[in-house]
Design goal:
single chain; 96 residues; alpha+beta; Alpha-Beta Plaits; four-stranded antiparallel beta sheet; two-stranded antiparallel sheet; globular
Length: 96
Amino acid sequence: MPTLHRTIVRPILTEASSLAYQDRGEYYFEVHPDANKTEIRQAVEQLFAVKVTGVWTSNHRGKDKRMGRTAGRKPHWKRAIVKLADGDRIDQIFEG
């Protein structure tokens, strides 16, 4: 089981994720592959002092990459979409 600070690996800041938090209050995070929805909910609530109303997760396969003659693979990773209660915001990371 990952610890609190290892559960949330990093925020995902893309054009689609910025539209999601502006329109629907959803935030995207890369999370530890072994973290479940309950652990993700608790980590976000404790780290950012907000109320989480929903968590959706998806596993992403690492892509095959070639560097000259050698083939490699990027690591597998897990994404979590976190919906916050009305009025809650995470300004520390997503508002710049």
